[in-house]
Amino acid sequence: MSAKNTHICDVLVVGAGLAAERSAVEAAEAGLNVIILSLVPPRRSHSTAAQGGMQASLGNAAMAKGDNPQIHFEDTVKGSDWGCDQEVAKMFCETVPSMIRQLDYWGVPWNRVTAGKKKMPSGIEVEDTKDKEGLITARDFGGVAKWRCCYTSDGTGHTVQFVVDTVVCKLGIPVHDRMEAIALIHDGETCYGVVARCLRTGDLNVYLAKSTVIATGGAGRIYAASTNAVINEGTGAAIALNTGLVPLGNMEAVQFHPTGMPPVFILMTEGARGDGGYLLDKNLHRFMPDYEPKKKELASRDVVSRRMIQHIRAGYGVESKYAPQHLWLDIRHLGRQWVWTNLREIATIAGNFNGLDPAKDLVPVIPTQHYTMGGVRTNKDGYAYGLKGLFAIGEAACWDLHGFNRLGGNSLAETVTGGYIVGKQIVKYTLGATQDFNYKLVEDFVKKEEERIKNLISGKNGKEDVFEIRNAMQQTMMDHVHIFRTGPSLEQGVAKLQELYKRSLKIGLRSSGQGANPELAQALRMPGMVRTALCVAYGALTRTESRGSHFREDYPKRDDANWLNRTLAYWKEGADLPTLDYEPVACPYMPPGDRGYGEASAGPKKGK
Amino acid sequence: MGRQLTFSIFRYNPNIPGEEPRMQEYKLEEYEGMTLFVALNDIREKLDPTLMFDFVCRAAICGSCAMMINGTPGLACKTMTRTLPSRITLMPLPVFKLVGDLSVDTGTWFRNLQVKTESWIHTSKKFDPEALEVRMENKTAEAIYEPERCIECGCCVASCITANIRDDFLGATGINRVGRFLIDPRDERTDAEYFEVVGNEEGAFGCVGLMACDDNCPIDLPLQMQLAFVRRKMAQAGLKLDLKRMKIS
Fold first, then answer.
1. For A249-385, where are the alpha helices, taking DSSP H only?
2. What is residue A118's predicted lDDT score, i.e. its pLDDT?
3. d(CA B11, CA B9)
């Protein structure tokens, strides 16, 4: 076996979600030859699962009056717990309004302002004025000062992805779906493309490009319970890490969404609370105002998730057939009309999976892994650290818009905005680059992958079962690297993961591995997944402070004197732990201060 | 103790030389809340790691996992085993090219559909990043969202007698997609231009009216209404066309 096909292009985009496609559009419109490769067809990407909306300070809705990029910026920095790159956040907040309007121009059916006085389902009275009628409206979301989340019902990711994909179709950008990048080709300085395995035939393919863009989404599936799609295994970030040269930034910053629905852990949008929904405990008491009197259910996600677990630990969790311990989401008071128009997707999901109708039933919820703030570390132009010709965008990247906690509605907004901003940089770099590669180097990378495949099939290195290792890794992350973290537990978690990592190098297939064999696909990913998990766990163990979603019970305070920095995790050849390095986080526009919600502002124990 | 479930699953991997299509049986014990997503992954992990199938979101919003479930197309991820008899037959969707076992290539089919129907906004306007968005009534936005919800799972295509006979039929999903652009004020195509795309046997007039598409749509799109709407629009457009310019096939 050798590489079946070699494809040569200017720009290779790995991934076909929103960040990927938006950057591909930018490159194709500049006349560059672009290929998108993806595990699945673009319209199946996890971007389509985004529900609530996109944050952009259009200021059209009554409750958005006076909004501007500066207020959006401040909300984002507070949300990040001062962990984000403020230059990136500023550029993002200034650009996103025009992105929303461009999506509208391309065909997204954004919900619009209707003029008149109205009592919102949440009980708030607002008056939308005639001069704003027909402009794009917005809903409330967590951790924001203004209503800024632009939406199409609660299927925003779906409509935005479908519309951006229409532009990809119109421009004729080729998409090679069911094609998985399994290694980056590089010479220690420059990235030349990828070795990919076809998920239709099992054949290896080579893609050579002046610019390679990693846009493969998050790594939620290193946890057993995640709202993420099952394809979100962090494969793109892992192949970057595997080079030993490219670091992953802030991997310990993992977002847990307050409202995953057990037992399937599918997301119930933050829009449910944005539109006025409550969280209730076993006594049907609305507990969030006890902990967070100002923001209530709409503090940032890290804060709401911790308050929920805190409340469950205090004995107020619900025990039911859905989960051993959970809480309730109550949107019954929003009314049937509102629920089945503006929260229709989650109403359908609650019906499909638990037989519940949220217009009349309470929905079980529990904080669930949701978003990977960390990823391939890039500079503010999207250039990956460590290799020339390599870029990263979207959830796969650590750009770093989100710091230690991402605001709801900022990720979908980041996909297209990052795709656009970094897309322009990709164009600039690619136009100045020459197609240059050493075929011996390429063949060596192909041979290395062939060798891995051969050894997995023959069982040369061992007979470890890939599914057993994956399940054990996922459970370890649940047990030791979750919402509340402590030193001793993290140490145990790291030790378990190191053991699993060693075993992952000894996987042998049970099956023949022929064709597009799914066991082989999983086995090829497994060592990279455990390395990624170790970057999360070891980064969490080492960071002895609490910031955003990273909460250490043994170090419960943010420590700006020692930890106002970003973690860079490298994987050196032959290592069984990442090498950690740190770089300072600058705060040129907004010095560290009070978030206005959370334990530092509202106090640790106000619940009853 | 749960029921003993017997899964009879279509097996064929076209990339293994000499392999013949066949049905293979697997047995699992049912438990509370079991979906076909859970069951198929259990089979892969515990009984047969070669079994091919597609899941992405496992929340019935991405459209990846459509298959024939006891003879009817549906999304495997949201199908509870308790709604099925203890013998469950799973086959890949017809019409689409087989990748292997339960996995079919819907991606290529749908991409071809978008290109063929030019399913993107046709406008002569240039995007002005400095300008406000063009105003639209919220009602119009909601009306566009309704057909835009299609997840392109292929259940309507697999259900459709015309699509099973004619390769070039757009299917209910295609006609629904065109209907979505027909009502979008941002799209400047004329009815006559739409007629070129969908006013023929490949489109609105190829439907023979059995409406299994409407019955089997997993997200309850009003496909019957959409078909009727596009057909009516195209019939009106057809009457206004200059017949001399038309090819009669």
1. 271-274, 288-291, 301-311, 336-342, 344-354
2. 86
3. 6
Query: In this complex, is the C-beta atom of A153 within 8 Å of any C-beta atom belonging to chain B?
Result: yes
Rounded to a whole number of angstroms, the distance between the first and last alpha carbons of chain A is 66
Side-chain-facing half-sphere of A376: CA atoms under 13 Å = 35
Rounded Cα–Cα distance for residues A403 and A374 (Å): 8
**ipTM field:** 0.96
The reported pLDDT for the residue numbered A584 is: 97
- Report which of B91, B53, B8 is spatially closest to residue A518, judged by C-alpha positions: B53
pLDDT band of residue A218 (cuts 50, 70, 90) is very high
Answer with the residue of higher pLDDT: B24 or B238. Answer: B24
Q: Which amino acid is at A84?
A: C
SS3 A582: strand
Identify the H or E element spanning A89.
Answer: helix A86-106
**Between the CA of residue A585 and those of A73, A88, A589, what are the distances in Å?**
16, 12, 12
The span from the CA of B139 to the CA of B85, in Å, is 43
pLDDT for B242: 65
Q: How far apart are CA A187 and CA B29, in angstroms?
A: 52
How far is it, in rounded angstroms, from Cα B149 to Cα B143?
A: 11
Helix axes A69-79, A86-106, angle to 10 degrees: 120
Which one has a higher pLDDT value, B2 or A347? A347
d(CA A393, CA A179): 19
In this predicted structure, the answer to whether residue A523 has a pLDDT above a threshold of 60 is yes
Beta strand A254-261 with A363-372 is antiparallel
Both tokens of residue A147?
């209503």
pLDDT tops 80 at residue A169: yes
- Is residue A212 within 8 A of residue A389, CB to CB? The reply is yes
pTM recorded for the entire structure: 0.96
Give residue for tokens 């990809």: A168
Mean pLDDT of B53-57: 97
Query: Smallest CA–CA separation between B244 and chain A, in Å?
Result: 31
Question: Which of A273, A306, A485, A595 is flagged as catalytic?
Answer: A273
Phi, psi (degrees; rounded to nearest 5) at A349: -65, -45
Task: Give the rounded distance of the alpha carbon of A555 from its chain centre.
Answer: 26
Q: Could you report the per-residue pLDDT of B79-89, keeping only the tens digit for each?
A: 999 999 999 99
Cα distances from A441 to residues A186, A245, A467, B209, in angstroms, run: 8, 17, 33, 59
Q: In this structure, what token pair is assigned to residue A593?
A: 């201060």
**What mean pLDDT do residues A433-461 have?**
95
For chain A, what is the mean pLDDT? 96
Cβ–Cβ gap A158/B110 under 8 Å: no
**pLDDT for the residue A120:** 79
Dihedral-angle region of residue A596 (phi above 0 means left; psi in -120 to 50 means alpha; beta otherwise): left
**Token reading at A215:** 């846009």
Measured between beta carbons, which residues in chain A are less than 8 angstroms from residue B148?
Answer: 109, 152, 158-159, 162
Return the pLDDT at A400. Answer: 96
| Cβ separation A137–B138 shorter than 8 A | yes
Contact A310, A279 (CB under 8 A): no
> Does A49 lie at the interface with B, CB-CB under 8 angstroms?
yes
The number of helices, as runs of H, and strands, as runs of E, in chain B is 9, 7
Phi-psi category of residue A329: left, alpha or beta, with phi > 0 → left and psi -120 to 50 → alpha:
beta
Q: Residue A364's closest CA among A268, A229, A237? A: A268
